Amino acid sequence: MGASLDDLEWDVKAYFALGGAVHDAAIAAWGIKGWYDYVRPVSAIRYMASLGQGSDPAQPSYHHNGLPLYDGLVEVVQAGDPLVGADGEHLGKIKLYGWRGPDYIADPAADMAGVGWILAENWWPYQRPTFVTPPFAGYISGHSTFSRAAAETLTLLTGSEYFPGGMGEFVARKNEFLVFEEGPSVDVVLQWATYRDASDQTSLSRIWGGIHPPVDDVPGRRVGETVGLASYAMAKSYFDGSAIPEPEPEPEPQEEAPGSKKGSGGSFGLVELLFGLALLFGARGFRAAGSGPLINRRRVMADDWYFLGIDAGGSRCRARLESADGSLLGRGFGGPANPCYGLDLAMRSIEKAAAAALADAGLAPELVSRLRVGAGVAGLHLPRYRDAMRAAPHPSRSWY
Predict the structure, then answer these.
(1) Which residue would you say has higher pLDDT here, 55 or 357?
(2) Structural contact between residues 24 and 33, judged by C-beta atoms closer than 8 angstroms
(3) What is the spatial distance between Cα 38 and Cα 59, in angstroms, rounded to a whole number?
(4) Least confident of 12-21, 156-165, 378-387
(5) Helices (H) and strands (E) in the chain, counts
(6) Which residues have C-beta within 8 Å of that of residue 327, sequence separation ≥ 6?
(7) Distance between CA atoms of 164 and 288, rounded to whole angstroms?
(8) Which H or E element spans position 151?
(9) How many Å separate Cα 161 from the centre of its chain?
């Protein structure tokens, strides 16, 4: 356990770490949701019930994709059933024993829907009628992912898996806590020894409420655990200062090597830089502030020239190769390219992206003498990084 913090420092660090963890959990969960596009219970139950029962081919309303029958929980509406309808219109449909839903609540402050038999086509998750179920995929559960990421973060922040005092508690007061029906009928006291206990109950609540099937839960917990640990490590690096490396020492000035190329590959010219920025946004030219007429690359490059635009950012590097008429020829990608992470890493990332773009276009090495390069490199607004990159002895200098 670390040193005690004053209230302000604790608040800042705790909210920073928790906010980052939950934000990262959202990115992970929603990426998975978008990939799998998995069904919610309300859609699955109503659709399968519309097909019939899927348990017994000898019984009425059989369909191999229908709802499985369970005595006392999922059954077929028979003649004489109160749900059959005045004209028998619901005969053979599927009925469920569960929460009866908002149709049985006229006054939320006084009425309780309770449980009973309902038509499966009218099944509701246990939520208010204006928020039936989220309009996005179920797998994986966001609640499971968020809560587990937060639990891992709080455990590492506090140095203990336990709530302060050994127990966390929440009381849902009788006939006060619920907002869409009267209830609960008695005070409900929830208690958790650890942050993970509370997280687990958060996950289970979405199953009990009919918002998620069980398959959405545990994978979300696992993703949340992984994200929480990694996110806390990132937050801690900002607390101890290791997230921002010390600047590299200023390089000694070096003379230009004999035979090095100029013009077609010796420096970042203004025209090339402007075209590089325009290129990255798919433009055919670039209008600088107050520059007047639109600059067109065909006025400065012959048709047999190639143009390479490089967007060298702090998280990754992108390169795009075009012909003089603006046709896309190839793309390439590299790693982080901000020199603050290390000059050698930045140069290798840029070289990797550029080489990949040339290879994607099938551009022969002998054609690089007819190449113009425009680059936007993160961190080069600082003179020490800009000068260091220009002076660095690196194979990349052979083409830019």
Answers:
(1) 55
(2) no
(3) 30
(4) 378-387
(5) 8, 11
(6) none
(7) 59
(8) helix 142-158
(9) 27
Q: Which two tokens stand for residue 271?
A: 């025209």
Q: Retrieve residue 133's tokens.
A: 């179920």
**Looking at per-residue confidence, does 253 or 136 come out higher?**
136
For the chain, the structural domain boundaries read: 7-35+135-239, 41-122, 270-398
Q: Above 90 in pLDDT, residue 130?
A: no
Mean pLDDT within 199-208: 96
Instruction: Please compute, for residue 95, the number of CA atoms within 13 A of its CA located in the half-sphere on the CB side.
Output: 21
* H or E stretch covering 26: helix 7-36
Question: Under a CB-based contact definition with an 8 Å cutoff, are residues 42 and 123 in contact?
Answer: yes
Fold of the domain built from segment(s) 270-398: Nucleotidyltransferase; domain 5 (3.30.420)
Greater model confidence, 169 or 257: 169
List 117's β-bridge partners, or say none. Answer: 97
Lowest-pLDDT range, 8-12, 66-70, 396-400?
Answer: 396-400
pTM: 0.61
Q: Are 198 and 192 in contact (CB under 8 A)?
A: yes
Residue 161: count other Cβ atoms within 10 Å of its Cβ: 15
The secondary structure of 277-334 as a DSSP string is HHHHTT-SEE--TT--SPEEGGGTS-TT-EEEEEEE-SS-EEEEEEETT--EEEEEEE
- Given a cut of 50, whether residue 256 has pLDDT beyond it is no
Say which residue the tokens 């849902």 belong to: 172
Q: What is the dihedral of CA 300, 306, 307, 313, to 10 degrees?
A: -160
Length of the chain: 400
| Residue 275: per-residue pLDDT | 37
